[in-house]
NAD-dependent succinate-semialdehyde dehydrogenase (Chelativorans petroleitrophicus), 477 residues
Amino acid sequence: MMTHVQLYIDGQWRDGASGKTLDFWNPVNGEVIGTVAKAEQSDLEEAVAAAERAFRSWRSVSAYDRSALLRKAAGILRSRLDEVATLLVREEGKPLAEAKGEVAASADIIEWFAEEGRRTYGRLIPARAETVQQLVVREPVGPVAAFSPWNFPVAQAVRKIAAALACGCTIILKGPEETPACCAALVQAFAAAGLPKGTLALVYGVPAEISQYLIPHPAIRKVSFTGSTAVGKQLASLAGLHMKRVTMELGGHAPAIVFDDADIAKAVDRLGAFKYRNAGQVCGAPTRFLVQERVYDAFLEGFVAYAQAIKVGDGMEPDTRMGPLANPRRVDASLAFVEDAVKKGARLACGGARIGNRGNFFQPTVLADVPVDANVMNQEPFAPIAIVNRFSEAEDALAEANRLQYGLASYVFTESHARAQIASAGIEAGMVSINHAGLGLVETPFGGVKDSGYGSEGGLEAMEPYLVSKFVTHARI
Ligand code: NAD
């Protein structure tokens, strides 16, 4: 069954001006399963003009009415959960249960932002004269250009869309070309809820052409990007050149410090689940497991057993716990990481190879005692590869945790309150999760420091970038 995904511009689903399309594939077997319309510059011009027009009225719709409309979209998405989750499995590969979880969480995200949009309070500042009133008014920043990736095609897109719309901004989203149908299904839920035309647009095409056009465009007031650090730096530079506000949710290489007083069985289960979720293609996935000497062997043995027990297969099969990688690039990258690490002296504790010769299946992999010069110790693997290394003193673990320029998620396992405090204070990361993997809830901040980017896509902090403060001082005559 072939799917054709169209662009959504000015309230219309339509093909690009040139009629050109791009193919996308099922990662289970590499077969083309659909085509997506490719936007040309004239399509983008229309999208920007519509977003600019729509902003004039959307900004004045009351927060109460905007909230009602967003909640309606959440309800529609929830009612289509099975259908959207199936699209997601077909084009991205994750197991159906994970896909359903992503769509359900996306509906929750819309609702949370819908409610939070009603609380974008300003303030009243006491004046120095009785006849003066001083106000700080929160206003939407303007039309937004957003870029969302393929690993969570619904959940990453919805954080940007819901936050922007809830704050009164209009938004043009460049969706992921490799997983376009589920992202389009998300946009359809907003359209079906009655969102005014031009308020939300969805485009696909050549990513660099789209960002080069949208970011400098004078009508665009804010840019939000989720993806690799390399691309994020290019887009942030372009945005800086044109004085655009930016949120950057980029790569990570999360350390997971396991102290010798930790509950090892719990550490293995909780970190194992987070490591291999979405086949490791998660920016906040634990990657460098730093385990204290005394419990190193027990942790490694447990973690290898965990990895080997994972049933890898087609995400539509009910017993599959890990699907294929989303694209062949990730398989090639995974093989290269393993080969390089082993060549430099790492022990391959399990996995390390492609499964079969059809689709993008890769074994859950554990590398032990990996030298610091191995590529996988320095570049984000974005793959089901865990590195299990040892440390003796807490300061050694912290030094290793902070060695890289990444600073997104981090994990600590210990029964000691003091160790937990020292580690969480010492780690240079946007998020620290202690004794569980508790990151990514919409009501909590989600973002990084250093090369992992800036800004947040969760919690109250996620509203800020879509709002500007206007100071109004009013003297009575
Ligand atoms: P990539 O760097 O080519 O692309 C990453 C994302 O950026 C994609 O969604 C792509 O469409 C978009 N992109 C690329 N060039 C762009 C441009 N000039 N303008 C606008 N958007 C652009 O890499 P990839 O092979 O797709 O993914 C591999 C790496 O990307 C991973 O190793 C990981 O570091 C990173 N990544 C991170 C996240 C995240 O959640 N932070 C998500 C997906 C990918």
About this structure: Residues 351 and 363 are 5 Å apart (CA to CA). The chain is about 35% helix and 20% strand. The longest strand covers residues 132-140. The pocket of nicotinamide-adenine-dinucleotide is lined by residues 147, 149-151, 176, 207-208, 211, 226-228, 230-231, 235, 249-251, 283, 329, 380, 382 (CB under 6 Å).
